[in-house]
Specification:
The complex is a heterodimer of chains A (312) and B (327). Chain A has a domain of 217 residues: Brix domain (Rossmann fold, 3-Layer(aba) Sandwich). Chain A is 22% helix and 28% strand. Chain A contains five helices and 13 strands. In chain A, the strands form two sheets. In chain A, strands 3, 4, 5, 6, 7, 8, 9, 10, 11, 12 and 13 form an eleven-stranded mixed sheet that branches. In chain A, strands 1-2 form a two-stranded antiparallel sheet. Chain A starts with 26 loop residues before the first strand and ends in a 14-residue tail after the last helix. About 6% of the residues of chain A have low confidence. With 327 residues, chain B is mainly α. Chain B contains nine helices and three strands. In chain B, strands 1-2 form a two-stranded antiparallel ribbon. Classes of the chains: A alpha+beta (312), B mainly alpha (327). Chains A and B meet through strand 7, strand 8, helix 3, strand 9 and strand 10 of A and strand 2, helix 1, helix 2, strand 3 and helix 3 of B. Strand 8 of chain A pairs parallel with strand 3 of chain B. Chain B: Belongs to the EBP2 family. Chain B: Keywords: Coiled coil, Nucleus, Ribosome biogenesis. Chain B: It is found in: Nucleus, Nucleolus.
């Protein structure tokens, strides 16, 4: 190990020389090479969607929910999948740090409790609102009845039912879903062409998600044949799930409660209810027997005329 | 039953029903077959609804209003009817129509922008489901199709069998009827004739006397269609291959050969006491020699030689025995 040379620690910061002489390389875009001169729309103040979603789950997650998570990862090219987080870390602060570490602007956290119930947290970080959903009716893409297929990473069309505009909490949810599930334009991993559509609709105060592949007979890439729009068919690709909003918080993974679903009953309570319904069976039976006995004693039957007929 | 007890936080006028009920009824309704979803039919009085806060946050996170639609790619479709959650078909149909409507609108927009939005047929790229998975899907679809087709075929076969049976029954009936009719008519004719005392033969106006009734059909093989390739043997009753040498006339010959005139030699005894003394099968000379034996020495010797010539050496012993017996 040679001695470390002591040389002056003067930082030599060579100023970056902007070579104005050499012509700049044409910009590479998805549609080909474009010279910088031709840029009209993309000024420096134009809107650029830099959304990045962090997708994680808790430990002890069920196989079905894990597959659902993997499916969601494959649907969103602008997501980053991360390792499982410990159950202690699923409280607020650590998750926020994780999201910041990865440089993401939102998070989808799949929390599985008792290996039976799946909760989905949708949060905009660092200070955006967050929502906790209970997920029902999960069907993954691997089911053979869901026969469609589409390009991986192509930008989806998002459709919302007009119910979303009725209440402020639905409006907020719609905005969050649009930002999280919509692939940013010109995202690095996204593919061109639009060949699938997401459906979000509110039925019975639940948000239902469907993903369909669009198949329309066409010859050219930018025009549909005249009757083509009528012959369009949609094939379901999957996955399918149903979200039941529980609470909306003002901060990311915590903060002031902005909205609570009044109709929500937690799955634990449902199970407890069921058990209670079954619990009183024996006691009820004993009571019924006693009641019958009392009734018999209080209303004695008339002596039967034919009781002695067959007596020897 | 436990009530959700939370602190009352009502910051704004909202739609909470304040009806003073202690126990909100719990309506156990199954929205999906997998998870039972229990809903409170009455709103819990104590839920939070911070309208202003929600709208604030919405303003925070929304994108600017003038963002090009191509960034959002979102469409709003009106859901006209209230869909019952538990009716699976109606619900899925509603989703499907929503998606279809939205795609149509989107495509119209895309077309006006004149940018490529449809995938060309030769664009090969990674798909969201692997090829092996799609092969499985295809296999399953084909299997279903085949099942349906087989069920159809089976049903058709059953029906056609029924019909064929009916037709057959009809035919038999008709034939029997015809036969009966013919016999009846012959009987009638006879009676008529008897009554009239076998006179006026020529004045009988019976229809069957045109000479054609007893005409044999010129068909050489009735009951066999011209396109029959089985040689007329397909419809024979009890035809199941050869039965003991193909029945019919051959059967008689066959039986005769087997059993006629005492039957075959087969497994019978050959060398018994009776057959030894049986001289019927020898020729005349031999018989006489054996029977009578009064031949001179020369004749005997000749006979012996003849015997040996004809029947071998051992036959000569026959003469000696016979001689001894006679003598």
């Amino acid at each position: 190990m040679g001695k470390k040379r002591k040389h002056s620690e003067a930082e030599v910061t060579a100023p970056v020389k902007n070579d104005e002489g050499a012509p700049q390389r044409p910009e590479r875009t998805l549609l080909g090479w474009k010279d910088k001169v031709e840029e009209k729309e993309s000024d420096s103040t134009a809107f650029r969607n830099k959304e990045k979603v962090l997708v994680t789950c808790s430990r002890r997650i069920n196989y079905r929910y894990r597959h659902l998570m993997m499916n969601v990862v494959s649907l969103l090219p602008h997501c980053k999948k991360d390792n499982k987080v410990e159950s202690k870390e699923s409280k607020g602060a650590t998750l926020n740090e994780l999201v910041e570490l990865k440089g993401c602007s939102s998070c989808l956290f799949f929390e599985c409790r008792k290996q039976k119930d799946l909760y989905l947290w949708m949060a905009k970080c660092p200070n955006g609102p967050s929502v906790k959903f209970l997920v029902n009716a999960v069907h993954t893409m691997e089911e053979l009845k869901l026969t469609g297929n589409h390009l991986q990473g192509s930008r989806p069309l998002l459709t919302f039912s007009t119910n979303f505009d009725k209440d402020p909490h639905w409006k907020l949810l719609k905005e969050m879903i649009m930002q999280i599930f919509g692939t940013p334009k010109d995202q690095r991993k996204s593919k061109p062409y639009h060949d699938h559509v997401f459906v979000f609709s509110i039925v019975d105060d639940h948000i239902w998600f469907r993903n369909y592949q669009i198949s329309v007979p066409h010859n050219e890439a930018d025009k549909v044949d005249r009757g083509g729009l009528d012959k369009m068919t949609l094939v379901e690709v999957g996955p399918r799930f149903c979200l039941n909003p529980i609470k909306i918080f003002g901060g990311s993974f915590g903060g002031q409660t902005l909205y609570e679903n009044p109709f929500y009953v937690s799955p634990n309570q449902i199970r407890a209810l069921e058990k209670k319904q079954k619990a009183g069976k024996y006691a009820k039976k004993v009571k019924a027997k006693k009641r019958r006995k009392m009734h018999e004693i209080s209303n004695p039957m008339e002596p039967d005329e034919f009781a002695d007929m067959w007596k020897e | 039953m436990g009530i959700l007890k939370k602190e009352l936080v009502l910051s704004n006028k909202d739609a909470v029903n304040d009806d003073g009920e202690e126990n909100p009824e719990v309506d156990v309704s199954e929205s999906e077959s997998e998870d039972e979803d229990v809903k409170l039919t009455e709103r819990s009085k104590t839920s939070v609804y911070n309208r202003d806060g929600l709208l604030d946050k919405l303003g925070d996170i929304s994108w600017p209003k003038d963002v090009d639609w191509r960034h959002r790619l979102s469409l709003d479709i009106n859901q006209e009817q209230e869909v019952d959650v538990n009716d699976d078909l109606a619900r899925e149909l509603a989703f499907y129509t929503q998606a279809l409507e939205a795609t149509r609108q989107a495509f119209v927009k895309f077309q006006s922008m004149q940018l490529p939005f449809l995938r060309p047929s030769d664009y090969y790229a990674e798909m969201v489901k692997t090829d092996s998975h799609m092969v499985k899907v295809k296999g399953r679809l084909l299997a279903e199709k085949r099942k349906i087709e087989e069920a159809e075929e089976r049903r058709k076969a059953r029906e056609s069998k029924k019909i064929a049976k009916e037709v057959q029954a009809q035919k038999l009936k008709e034939r029997a009827k015809q036969k009966k009719e013919e016999i009846e008519s012959v009987k009638k004719w006879r009676k008529q004739r008897q009554r009239n005392g076998f006179e006026k033969d020529d004045q009988m106006g019976l229809t069957f006397e045109d000479g054609k009734t007893f005409e044999k059909s010129t068909k050489k093989r009735p009951g066999v269609g011209p396109a029959d390739r089985s040689g007329g043997k397909a419809n024979r009753v009890g035809w199941k291959g050869k039965k003991g040498g193909a029945g019919g006339k051959k059967g008689r010959d066959f039986k005769d050969s087997k059993f006629g005139f005492g039957g075959r030699k087969g497994m019978k005894k050959q060398n018994t006491a009776e057959t030894t003394n049986d001289i019927k099968s020898f020729n005349k000379k031999m018989r006489q020699a054996l029977l009578y034996g009064h031949l001179s020495q020369n004749e005997k010797r000749l006979a012996e030689l003849a015997l040996i010539e004809n029947f071998g050496f051992l036959a000569s012993y026959l003469i000696i025995d016979v001689e001894i017996a006679i003598a």
